[in-house]
Every structure is written in C-alpha cells, then in structure tokens.
Automatic annotation (TrEMBL):
Residues 69-85 have a biased composition (Acidic residues). Keywords: Metal-binding. It comes from Halanaeroarchaeum sulfurireducens. The keyword Metal-binding applies. InterPro entries: Heavy-metal-associated_CS (IPR017969), HMA_dom (IPR006121), HMA_dom_sf (IPR036163). It comes from the Archaea. This is Heavy metal transport/detoxification protein. GO terms for molecular function: metal ion binding. The keyword Metal-binding applies. CDD domains: HMA (cd00371).
Length: 85
C-alpha cells in the first residue's frame, strides 16, 4: 500500500531527512520518501495513516492531507453518488 501525505512546510534536504527518519519509525513502514519540492511524503508498507500523520507532526511539520492508492476510484464513486442525488 502506498500513502502520500502533503507536507508544505518542508524546505530543504534536512527537512526531508527529519521527516523520513520520523516516519520510518512507524510500525510496518517499508520505505519513505520525502520531497520538499513536491511537498509530499510517500510511504510504502504501512496503512496506518494516523500514525504516519502523527510522526510527521511530532517531527515538527504539518501534514495537511493524505491519499492512498485507490482514492481515485473512491472519488469517482463519490462523484457518481453526488450526480444521482
């Protein structure tokens, strides 16, 4: 499973390293890649979004949203439901 979190307050390689180290401590995380230019943190392995968001917050950064593989399908289903309503 892949989870991507937006973290807009990372500004350098050091920020990326701090976030990656914090998230790597979350149980089940196999890999983590922070990208300050894209303002994202991508996590493989763990599906514990709350723990990932808490780790980022504890590291001193502000996670603002998350998405997982398959969110697009959920969004399409939600859009279809709204059209029917």
């Amino acid at each position: 499973m892949s989870i991507t979190v937006t973290v807009s307050d990372m500004s350098c390689d050091g920020c990326e390293e701090i976030v990656e180290n914090a998230v790597s401590e979350v149980n089940g995380v196999e890999s983590v890649e922070a990208d300050s230019d894209a303002e994202t943190v991508t996590v493989e392995g763990s599906d514990d979004v709350e723990a990932i968001m808490e780790a980022i917050d504890f590291a001193g950064y502000s996670p603002s949203r998350e998405s997982t593989e398959g969110d697009e399908e959920d969004a399409d289903t939600t859009g279809a439901d709204e059209d029917e309503a």
